[in-house]
Amino acid sequence: MSKPKPFPSITGSCACNTIRYRLLTSPLFCHACHCGDCQKYTGSAFGLFLNIETYNLSVISPTKPVVVIQEKKPGVKGRFLACPKCKTELWGNNVLGAAVCDLRVGTLDFPSLMEPDLHTFVESKVDWVRLPEGAKSTPKGYDYREVWPKSSLKRLEVAVARVAQATKEKQEKLATLLAKQRQENTSESDEVNVEETGGEGEKTPTAVEFEDNDVEDDEAFEKRFKETEKALQSRLEKLSLKLEEEELARKTGELAVGTA
């Protein structure tokens, strides 16, 4: 029995070639979108995208893409990976979530390799575009569960499960860090209290002279507690964002460079 042939090297880049990437396997699906939004976003007649598991997209350049969050329509934000130099949008995770990348086929070195499996929103395509004979199309959008090959749907299940597991591990890690930060914050507060009392423990009102404004009442304590919690939450949000970016970088090939 002959061994299956390895997937050919299909590479792509941004406009200035600062970002280089490689597809590690065949796409799940490829489609052309003729909707009005894609026409405006691309400045062309239609958008052309392929779907592939995030971990099957490897960044092979020293420079990594950066995360860009844009509000392209009022109230609708999109998250994309783009070149930090020329700003070319390479792919996003806005259709099927973190498990799957929606890659811009035009960024491939040889985009003609990816003929669309389906043309969508053909009711709004420009008049002079003629679809190839026999090309599959739909007037509007489509349900991937109805048009994707069974093999692609199975791959999608695996990808979603892997992302769910990674998300669970990330949440557990954040919970551990939160507990540690709170413990450290409590320890710091205890140390401050000991220093303020000179290490002599709690004193009675008759042991020292004081004025009313020297005593922290319940309201002041609550205010200080909330400020501490707010600062802690801010640090955790920054940490969460950093972990998310590192995880995204890992999935888009940062850790796969050595094996690419």
TrEMBL record:
Q: Which residues form the CENP-V/GFA domain?
A: 10-143
Query: Gene3D superfamilies, per this entry?
Result: glutathione-dependent formaldehyde- activating enzyme (gfa) (3.90.1590.10)
Pfam families per the UniProt record, alphabetical? GFA
- Entry GO MF terms: carbon-sulfur lyase activity; metal ion binding
Q: Which UniProt keywords apply?
A: Lyase, Metal-binding, Zinc
Acidic residues bias locations: 187-199, 209-219
Q: Where are the annotated segments for Disordered?
A: 178-219
Q: Which family does it belong to?
A: Belongs to the Gfa family.
PANTHER family per the record? Answer: CENP-V_GFA DOMAIN-CONTAINING PROTEIN, GFA DOMAIN-CONTAINING PROTEIN
The identity of this protein, by name, is CENP-V/GFA domain-containing protein
